[in-house]
Amino acid sequence: MKFWGVYKLLVGMLAAAESLLGMLRSFNGGGRGIWGPLTIAAAVLLAIDGLAELFSRAGRWDRWLVVALAGIVALSISIVSGEWPGKVWIFAAAVAFVQWMFQELKRTAGRQEMGALLCGVALAISLGNTTLMLFRVYWDEPQFWPLGQIFRFMFPIALPWTLIVVLVVHAGREVIWG
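Structure (tokenized):
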């Protein structure tokens, strides 16, 4: 269904943008933790899956084209820094390999949403880490927050959780019950 293709594409793009912004704003730098690259990889794979679903009806999307696109997108995101370290090539190859695995799982298992489910779970784990850090900041604050400030604090957390939970429920239902 085209709706889920658009949905996966948008969630993937939003997650990639937010992860890149988070890595750029981080005091620790972008290359030290695993959460940033993991989130970007899951977001890229989810967006590519959405694109493939959108254009699969037209018969234009061969599975090797999807794998190549995943590697190219991961490579282009990685080289924004202007450097070409070995990690960039490894990251792009790993994302392309995981996309190939998702394509093989679709073909052999007959479950179209397996990749979306795994990407959604990876995004949920990453978002869970971020949410715990934000709540720790909130609870360590010695002052009382007014209700309006609590809503402004919770909205940026609730929106991504809602998008990811809807995606995981949809994909999980398709994977489990077919």
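The chain has one domain: 2-177. The chain has a mean pLDDT of 81.
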